[in-house]
Design brief:
Alpha-Beta Plaits; Mitochondrial_malonyltrans; Malonyl-CoA:ACP transacylase (MAT) domain-containing protein; [acyl-carrier-protein] S-malonyltransferase activity; two-stranded parallel ribbon; 2 domains; Malonyl_CoA-ACP_transAc_FabD; alpha/beta; Malonyl-Coenzyme A Acyl Carrier Protein, domain 2; Acyl_Trfase/lysoPLipase; 8 strands
């Protein structure tokens, strides 16, 4: 992450600005690790945010790149990516967005450390079957180990969050529900559930102190798969997002239903491209890394 962007001065500048805000060398962590540190949510969230916006500068620097950027008429991002999308749309500055993301990562890390929780991807089932699997698991665990669907990604791929005991029951029962496989996610805890509630008040305070403007283009929210233009509503939605399931499948289907033709995935990896192809094989999407 970040290495490719160093050939673009505007992208390099973002990493230098990030170092001052974060108090550590983000690029060094992105390129050299150690992986265990980079995987921690308090580091990975700023890393993904900065690298994704550096990818925008990589796109801008190529022939016709600014024309592509000017042509974009809607944007969205998966979970943390919503902050990148809002920054791209001018809802807040790069610096203010990074400060929010830094606090979000720290608050979610603290909430994760306070509870024995986890996430697992369930592969090969529709959302109704995954809900049945969650219900079956919840019948066998205490209230503080309950599980729920946290990420509605695409048909056949849904992430479940909850207490570790509940997650273990999901893993044990998945085959009996005809799941193809489960994959335990390398995250700090049960994101996008009530396990993250301790992070909400801290995020609300930071959002209240942040200037948020009306986005220049629609930014689709993870919470309800709808765009929001009112700055106060955006603040409320971002605070709500950490405890609400990610409605990514609905977001993508809505965009396709409205005629989505060309899209770009800006940032590390090609996860979004894979999800879009799962929903519609004919989708045109280009990945631009950094």
């Amino acid at each position: 992450m970040g290495a490719e962007a160093q050939s673009v001065p505007a992208a390099t500048k973002l990493f230098n600005q990030a170092n001052e805000i974060l108090g550590y060398d983000l690029l060094d962590l992105c390129t050299n690790g150690p992986k265990e540190k980079l995987d921690s949510t308090m580091i990975s969230q700023p890393a993904i945010y900065v690298t994704s916006l550096a990818a925008v500068e990589v796109l801008r620097a190529r022939d016709g790149g600014q024309d592509v950027i000017n042509s974009v008429d809607v944007t969205c991002g998966l979970s943390l990516g919503e902050y990148t999308a809002l920054a791209f749309a001018g809802a807040f500055s790069f610096e203010d967005g990074l400060k929010l993301v830094k606090l979000r990562g720290e608050a979610m890390q603290d909430a994760s450390d306070a509870a024995n929780s986890a996430m697992v991807s369930v592969i090969g089932l529709d959302s109704e079957k995954v809900q049945e699997l969650c219900d079956a698991a919840n019948d066998e665990v205490d209230e503080n180990d309950r599980v729920q669907i946290a990420n509605f990604l695409c048909p056949g791929n849904y992430a479940v969050s909850g207490g570790v005991k509940g997650i273990e029951v999901v893993e044990a029962k998945a085959k009996s529900f005809k799941a193809r496989m489960t994959v335990r996610l390398a995250v700090a805890g049960a994101f996008h559930t009530s396990f993250m509630q301790p992070a909400v008040s801290r995020l609300e305070s930071a959002l209240a102190a942040t200037e948020i403007r009306t986005p220049r283009i629609p930014v689709i929210s993870n919470v309800d798969a709808q765009p929001h233009s009112d700055p106060n509503t955006i603040k409320q939605i971002l605070a709500q997002q950490v405890t609400s399931p990610v409605q990514w499948e609905t977001t993508v289907k809505n965009l396709m239903g409205k005629g989505l033709e060309i899209s770009y995935e800006l940032g590390p990896g090609k996860v979004i491209a894979g999800i879009l192809k799962r929903i519609n094989k004919g989708t045109s999407i280009e990945n631009i890394g950094a």
